[in-house]
Structures are given as structure tokens and as C-alpha cells.
Specification:
The protein has helices spanning 2-20, 38-46, 57-63, 84-87, 100-112, 139-146, 171-187, 205-210, 220-223, and strands spanning 28-32, 51-54, 72-75, 93-97, 117-122, 152-158, 196-198, 215-218. With 233 residues, the chain is α/β, with parallel strands linked by helices. The structure holds pyridoxal-5'-phosphate.
């Protein structure tokens, strides 16, 4: 099932790239494996998947030692400051930096280990009450602070769009994040490190690609639905 799903997702990515006049290699597929067993991650790995998204520190700590060394784990869920030290050197990117406070902790833990952490700033583009992330109006100020940290590289922006029946309804949010990204890049407050836009999930990744996503996070579309249909975001 995973093989067929991956083939399907990859061909849809390719088709969306054609529509948008983009190159498929400019869109990275992150297989969101939260709640799924290592056996399923391995199946995806054998089909060429190397980037995996998890939203719980504990799952990364458990799965990572069981996967081949070139597996890349992305932290995509809300990260508590007291857990930063546990994952900082076990992830290739933290997509979910949602406060300056969290960034300060990442800076401190990265400095201790003498590494530079690649992160994305999470933006609550749709301004949903239930979601984490910076308000679009706060991003620039946050970046002015975080951009000065020497152990953090802000690689771009991330958003979790609303859950909608029709992916087209999210196009405006993807456009808005892209615009914010372009505006920030033009001001060069990021020291030129910004190059990534993490947006689009199973229900709307094709629209996200059309609007400029460089990373899409697909769970259900690869691994099937999560238990009892309960969404563990
Ligand atoms: C679960 C999750 C996804 C994947 O969602 P699907 O709808 O299963 O593709 C993507 N991004 C984040 C942040 C998630 O928590």
C-alpha cells in the first residue's frame, strides 16, 4: 500500500510542478510518520523516502535509532521548551518555531553542542484560535530578534492551513505565506538564509506546490489514516 501511495503522491507532485512551471526536485516530500510503526517507515524508506516528519519528541527518540543513518527526521509539531535539548541534535529541521522564547532555548541548546540549528518560523496565516504560530504581523519582528542568534539559521516559514473539504479554499493562505516570505526576503532581515516554505498536507499539497511550497508534509496520503480517524496534530 505504501509503495502505491508514494507512487501516486510523487506523480501528483510532478503534475502540480508542471502546472506551476516548477521543477519536481525543488519540492521535498516529507513523509509524516507520526503514530506509525518503524516497519512502515522502513517500507517508505525502501521506496526512496528519506525525510520523515514527526510531531512528538518521544517518537523521534524511539524511531531514529531503528532507522538507517541517512534518514532525516523533521520536527513538525509544537515543541515544548523543556524538550529542546532532547531533539536538537536528532532532527534536520524544526518546522515549528512559534515563539521567540522557544528560539532562545534552541539557541542555548545548540550553542552548548556547538551546532547550528535549521528552523522554520511557524505562521498562523489563517489566524485560527486553535493553532500555534506567529501572527503574520509578528513574523518580521520575531525574525529581527531570532536572525541575530548565531546558532540558529532561519531557513524559511511553515504553516498548517485549516482543515477544509476543498483544497482551493486554502489557496489564499498559501498565497499569503508566499507573499510574506517574498517580502521578508526582499528586506534581507534573515541574513539571506531563507529559502524554504513548508506548506501543504494530504488534502491540499498540490495547491501548496502551485503556490510555491518547497516542502510538503504528507501523512495520510502515504501511510493511510491514523487510528480511529482521530487526528493527532
Ligand atoms: C499530521 C501532520 C501533517 C500530515 O497530515 P496529513 O493530513 O495526514 O497529511 C502535516 N503537518 C503537520 C504539522 C502535522 O501535524
Amino acid at each position: 500500500m505504501i509503495t502505491e501511495n508514494l507512487t501516486e503522491v510523487r506523480s501528483r507532485i510532478a503534475a502540480a510542478c508542471v502546472r506551476a512551471g516548477r521543477k519536481p526536485e525543488d519540492v521535498r516530500l516529507i513523509a509524516v510518520s507520526k503514530t506509525k510503526p518503524v516497519s512502515m517507515l522502513m517500507e517508505a524508506y525502501e521506496d526512496g523516502a528519506r525525510d520523515f516528519g514527526e510531531n512528538k519528541v518521544q517518537e523521534i527518540l524511539e524511531k531514529r535509532p531503528q532507522m538507517p543513518e541517512d534518514t532525516r527526521f523533521h520536527m513538525i509539531g509544537h515543541l515544548q521548551t523543556n524538550k529542546v535539548g532532547q531533539v536538537i541534535d536528532k532532527t534536520v529541521m524544526i518546522h515549528s518555531v512559534d515563539t521567540v522564547h522557544l528560539a532562545e532555548r534552541i539557541e542555548k541548546e545548540a550553542a552548548k553542542r556547538d551546532l547550528v540549528a535549521d528552523v522554520l518560523l511557524e505562521v498562523n496565516v489563517a489566524r485560527e484560535e486553535s493553532k500555534f504560530g506567529f501572527d503574520p504581523d509578528e513574523v518580521e519582528a520575531a525574525l529581527e530578534t531570532i536572525g541575530k542568534f548565531s546558532h540558529i539559521r532561519v531557513k524559511g516559514l511553515m504553516t498548517i492551513a485549516p482543515f477544509v473539504e476543498n483544497a482551493e479554499e486554502n489557496r489564499k493562505f498559501f498565497k499569503k505565506l508566499f507573499q510574506l516570505y517574498v517580502d521578508i526576503k526582499s528586506k534581507n532581515i534573515d541574513n539571506g538564509t531563507m529559502s524554504e516554505l513548508s506548506m501543504g498536507m494530504t488534502g491540499d499539497y498540490e495547491v501548496a506546490i502551485e503556490e510555491g511550497a518547497t516542502m510538503i508534509r504528507v501523512g495520510t496520503g502515504i501511510f493511510g489514516s491514523r487510528q480511529n480517524g482521530v487526528e493527532r496534530v
